[in-house]
Amino acid sequence: MSTVRGARERARIEVTAAIKDEARRMLAAEGAAKLSLRAVARELGMVSSALYRYFPSRDELLTALIVDAYDSVGAAAEQADARAHAGGAAPRERWTAVCEAVRAWALDHPHEYALIYGSPVPGYSAPADTIAPASRVGNTLIGIVRAAHAGRGLALPPLPAALRPEAVRMTADFAEGLPPEVTAALVAAWAQLVGLISFELFGQFNRVVEDRAAFFAHAADQLAHAVGLPAV
């Protein structure tokens, strides 16, 4: 019986992967708003009722694609940081390595990037299952800043008095142990990182920035400076 169960499980894994691969092709061709379980089933030669045994709704399929995308870019960020750290890189160099890994992933996976960082999908509300995967890149950057804070220290960015209560709240929520000044700068840096990548990916840099790799590397280093990471 265990052999039969194993074969069934392998078959389920293979069919699930095929469904998600076809859904990704549809995302690339038509966008997330037009994703349809019936269309996916038709392209795979399945009846809709069979596909519903794997994904009962379009939203569940979207959630699976979103979690996969966040996990993929998160793994790219974590691996880049691990390599830089193992090579003796300073925190600022680790930060830049992570930012460049996120950019490289986005350029390699533009439609998945658009799914997780682009316009919201009409009628879809992301469930709590997406929170942990979505946090992986941010947590990697926070970990680098924490290491610097515990080591040589950080240059505290300016923080207006009116923003301090919000910065204190954010610190308690997701950056415990860091100065509130740094937390506020981290949130701004994260937004700017996504903006830089989105501008490149979605064409806003056309006829504006030619050497985009060099421009991005400089911008990522400036974000590191903004959150207080020392130059060396």
UniProtKB/TrEMBL annotation:
Gene3D superfamilies: Tetracycline Repressor, domain 2 (1.10.357.10). Residues 13-73 form the HTH tetR-type domain. Residues 36-55 bind DNA. PROSITE patterns: HTH_TETR_2. Keywords: DNA-binding, Transcription, Transcription regulation. Pfam families: TetR_C_33, TetR_N. It comes from the Bacteria. This is TetR/AcrR family transcriptional regulator. It comes from Streptomyces flavotricini.
